[in-house]
């Protein structure tokens, strides 16, 4: 039962966070931020928010991290006013490396395929 509640809270945080980031946070450093997952501990004390940085002029990981640090208090206050929880979870923003790893694997597979093609052609 606790796990389902944590999951529901995580889903709600993710949904509300999307609205807050697109409608209320005006920091251009966060324009390239994409929330990939939200995981809330069973005791609802910590919400781990996983994000990825989409490519773009302002979209470096470091600039987005600085933007998150600056906006974290505001984001927590906004979420707190939208969620009806006894305690607002601490927000932990974590960079999600899954997409980077998948892109790296895809690049390696393409390189291997190209090497095999060259070898088959007598190269």
Could you describe the 3D structure shown?
The protein has helices spanning 2-23, 61-82, 98-120; strands at 33-40, 46-53, 90-95. It is built from 3 helices and 3 strands, in the order αββαβα. Helix 2 (61-82) links the parallel strand 2 and strand 3. By secondary structure, it is an alpha+beta fold. It has a single domain (2-97), classed as K homology (KH) domain (GMP Synthetase, Chain A, domain 3, 2-Layer Sandwich).
Name the features:
three-stranded mixed β-sheet; alpha+beta; 54% helix; elongated; 3 helices; 123 residues
CATH architecture: 2-Layer Sandwich
Strand order of the largest sheet: 1-2-3
Which stretches are low in confidence, meaning pLDDT under 50 for 5 or more residues running? none
The major pleated sheet works out as:
3 strands, mixed
Instruction: State the secondary-structure class.
Output: alpha+beta
CATH level 4 superfamily: K homology (KH) domain
Distance separating the two termini: 61 Å
Order of helices and strands: HEEHEH
Please state the average pLDDT score: 89
Number of helices: 3
CATH names the topology as GMP Synthetase, Chain A, domain 3
**So what's the CATH class?**
Alpha Beta
Q: What best-fitting shape do the alpha-carbon axes yield?
A: elongated
Radius of gyration, whole Å: 19 Å
| Residues in helix, % | 40-55%
Number of strands: 3
What proportion of the residues form beta strands (DSSP E)?
A: 15-25%
Indicate how many domains the architecture comprises: 1
């Amino acid at each position: 039962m606790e796990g389902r509640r944590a999951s529901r809270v995580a889903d709600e945080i993710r949904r509300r966070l999307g609205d807050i980031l697109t409608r209320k946070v005006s920091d251009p450093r966060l324009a390239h931020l994409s929330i990939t997952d939200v995981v809330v501990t069973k005791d609802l004390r910590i919400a781990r928010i996983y994000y990825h940085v989409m490519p773009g002029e302002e979209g470096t990981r470091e600039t987005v991290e600085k933007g998150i640090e600056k906006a974290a208090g505001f984001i927590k206050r906004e979420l707190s006013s939208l969620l009806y929880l006894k305690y607002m979870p601490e927000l932990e923003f974590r960079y999600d490396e899954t997409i980077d790893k998948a892109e790296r694997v895809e690049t390696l597979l393409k390189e291997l395929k190209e090497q095999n093609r060259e070898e088959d052609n007598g190269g």
